[in-house]
Design a protein that fits this description.
The complex is a heterodimer of chains A (about 425) and B (about 250). Chain A is built from nine helices and 19 strands. Chain A is of the alpha/beta class and about 425 residues long. In chain A, strand 1 and strand 2 form a beta hairpin. In chain A, helix 2 packs across helix 6, helix 7 packs across helix 8 and helix 8 runs antiparallel to helix 9. In chain B, helix 4 crosses helix 6 and helix 6 packs parallel to helix 7. The chains are: A alpha/beta (about 425), B alpha/beta (about 250). Chain A: This is Fe-S cluster assembly protein SufD.
Chain lengths: ~425, ~250
């Protein structure tokens, strides 16, 4: 019996196939990429629990409803919807329903060494930087990325010149603005030149009551000795599907740090693929997820050590209230050439609700013989002894819980280097705890 | 009316087959008094302190405890603290990620709020902590760190006394505050405690050894054994215990 033969398409799959039908024939390398991605989706469809990487996030079952492709958002509506990280001093780009809104975006007055344009403009002008797009491959079929490749028409394209130190972060604010559920796709490309340093922030938000689908993918090409910080805040609406893919190709002696704070969407999956292709780099991929009600949040990482002497660190914290479900899948692969690799991965979950569930799946695949790798996972409730100590000093139960949860999450958020963004994220986490009451 | 009145208190470890630990303990404590409770290991001294603070690992099966005439056992843990009960822990826990200053401020303001008082202003709070910390040899760096994180045994005990100084309780229960302290640390901690003696405040000093009572001189000494107070006297009783040990009580019981 072959599990891939599945003639019955769900309504969601049928709707996606209908969207894919509009791809034109002919064209360049990107058109070929799009058609290949569309074909792979036609072949595999939405992933289900028998596909190992999606075992805990059965997208085929979770995503039942058929929604059309999102149309453009009204400027005023997009403006009103984009609330997150407004207080942070950054160059702001608003991407509504998958398209950059020029009226709301700070595209002029760029610092020396910073090039910033939209994907649609780059496509229209045949910008040569697009030769980098689709260059980082996950090495396996990823439905979320395939759909993004096939359907995304816009996003942000950033090129930081070699040696340029760009102080002011670029913040890409993704919003969904509309009255009815629809699917949006955004694709971005960030190329950081050798020795350059750059901070990239992105946020996601949308209306609470709508089962919209937001699919965003960003590729980061990090040059030798470059320094890149990525800070992400996911607060999509409570009914939304959030699918994000982050792809990194890291050169020699580079430093990359990415952090995601996620508390939104009904179902969220963030897949991160990193290829360490140059010697002696240091990467840190961290995150914190705050879940409640029936939320489902999946953080999946794949770190591929191809070059020797690299260091990778992953720390993920998940707080689960009510009947929420968290998933952490982390895989570190150390190729034969990648001697002296130092890789550590840790997932910690704090269960606040009796019926909450956390699935941890750490994996190590090591082909080199001189490496240091480790992983760990913990899962537990708030420590009663700590709670008693705080209460014995007069701190009421809910406040004591909040302080302890904040401390738990804080350890991960503190890894964010940029002061303004770190403070903003801590504030959002605090707000989540306050709303919990 | 006594400030704290414990009458015929019986308590067992929570659960169906929980062992009975307190077997009819009675004690009256008036404002300004310092009571020492001494006794061999396993006599129920720490259990008594936990029950007064409200730890829910125990079940009170008989008797009563009142604070200022109110039923203490009916109160939530944090409510007891707001009413003036303070337990200096034998083994203070480490609370990573919660800075000592944040912790102290949350505790003080929560207590004030519960008592219907206004929250303390930031400058007043900083001044208050700075003054009290200096006397106890607690550095600014310790205050910025997570509560008790990486503190030595002596630093943890000093931090407990700092919390007591900031929170100004009516009844302070010091559970084996001398354990794990060398003679210098014992002196610092005792001086801290003595500075907090006042006509409005009562203290219950729980200790296994007489040594601590050379520094914190009690008004009354009680011997606890098998969950009850078996003998009470003045400070000279502690010296007698130091000379003869607890053997006579243990034989009586056998």
């Amino acid at each position: 019996m072959n599990a891939d033969i599945r003639p019955i398409r769900t309504p969601a799959e049928q709707a996606i196939l209908a969207s894919l039908g509009g791809l034109p024939a002919g064209g360049d390398r990107l058109a070929d990429l799009r058609r290949a991605a569309a074909r792979s989706f036609e072949e595999h469809g939405l992933p289900h629990r028998r596909v190992e990487e999606w075992k805990y996030t059965d997208l085929r079952t979770l995503m039942r409803e058929a929604v059309p492709l999102a149309g453009p958002a009204a400027v005023a509506q997009a403006d009103a919807a984009a609330r997150l990280l407004r207080g942070v001093e950054a160059r702001r780009i608003v991407v509504a329903n998958g398209a950059v809104v020029p009226e709301l975006s700070d595209l002029a007055g760029l610092e020396e060494g910073l090039r910033l344009t939209t994907l649609s403009a780059a496509l229209a002008s045949g910008d040569e930087v697009l030769s980098r797009l689709g260059g980082i491959l996950p090495g396996r079929y990823d439905a979320s990325l395939a759909l993004n490749t096939a359907l995304a028409k816009d996003g942000v394209v950033i090129v930081v010149a070699p040696g340029a130190k760009i102080e002011r972060p670029v913040h890409v604010a993704h919003v969904f603005a509309g009255e009815s559920a629809a699917a949006s796709y955004a694709r971005s490309l960030v190329v950081v030149g050798a020795g350059a340093s750059f901070t990239y922030a992105e946020s996601f938000e949308g209306p609470q009551g709508l089962a919209y689908q937001a699919n965003a993918a960003t590729e980061f090409v990090v040059g030798d000795e470059a320094h890149l910080d990525v800070v992400r805040l996911q607060e999509d609406g409570a009914g939304a599907f959030h699918l994000a893919t982050l792809l990194f190709d890291v050169g020699r002696q580079a430093q990359v740090h990415a952090f995601t704070l996620a508390s939104g969407a009904a179902v969220a999956r963030t897949s991160l693929y990193a290829t360490l292709s140059g010697e002696g780099s240091a990467v840190g991929f961290n995150g914190a997820s705050l879940l409640k009600d029936r939320q489902h949040n999946d953080a999946t990482l794949f770190v591929d050590h191809q070059a020797p002497g690299c260091e990778s660190r992953e720390l993920f914290k998940t707080v689960l209230d009510d009947t929420s479900r968290g998933v952490f899948q982390g895989k570190i692969v150390v190729r034969q050439a990648a001697q002296k690799t130092d890789g550590r991965m840790m997932s910690r979950a704090l269960l606040l609700g009796d019926d909450a569930e956390m699935d941890n799946k750490p994996e190590l695949e090591i082909f080199a013989d001189d490496v240091q790798c480790g992983h760990g996972a913990t899962c537990g409730a708030i420590d009663d002894e700590l709670l008693f100590y705080l209460r014995a000093r007069g701190i009421p139960l809910t406040e004591a819980q909040s302080l302890l949860v904040q401390a738990f999450v804080g350890e991960a958020v503190e890894t964010v280097e940029h002061d303004g963004l770190r403070e903003a994220l801590l504030e959002r986490a605090e707000g989540w705890l306050k709303a919990r009451g | 009316m006594a400030l704290l009145e414990i009458d015929n208190l019986h308590a067992k470890i929570d659960g169906e087959h929980g062992k009975e630990i307190l077997k009819g303990l009675s004690l009256k404590v008036n404002p300004g008094e310092v009571h020492a409770i001494m006794g061999p290991n396993g006599s129920g001294k720490s259990t008594l302190s936990y029950i007064l603070a409200g730890k829910d690992d125990y079940e009170v099966t008989d008797g009563s405890v009142s604070l200022d005439g109110e039923d203490l056992l009916e109160m939530e843990i944090d409510e007891r603290a707001a009413k003036g009960v303070f337990l200096a822990f034998q083994y203070p826990v480490e609370v990573p990620g919660v800075a000592t200053m944040t912790f102290l401020r949350s505790a003080l303001n929560a207590q004030r709020k519960k008592r219907g008082e206004e929250e303390i202003s930031t400058p007043d709070f900083l001044r208050l902590v700075k003054d009290k910390a200096a006397g106890l040899g607690i550095s600014q760096d310790m205050l910025r760190r997570g509560v008790n994180v990486g503190f030595s045994g002596g630093e943890k005990k000093r931090a407990e006394i700092l919390q007591m100084a900031v929170l100004e309780p009516k009844v302070a229960i010091l559970d084996e505050t001398d354990s794990g302290l060398d003679i210098d640390a014992l002196k610092v901690v005792s001086e801290g405690v003595n500075a907090l003696r006042s006509p409005d405040r009562a203290m219950i000093v729980i200790t296994h050894y007489q040594r601590l009572l050379n520094h914190i001189v009690p008004d009354f000494v009680h011997v606890m054994h098998k969950g009850r107070i078996v003998r009470s006297g003045g400070k000279e009783l502690a010296l007698e215990l130091e000379a003869n040990g607890y053997a006579e009580y243990q034989q009586d019981a056998a």
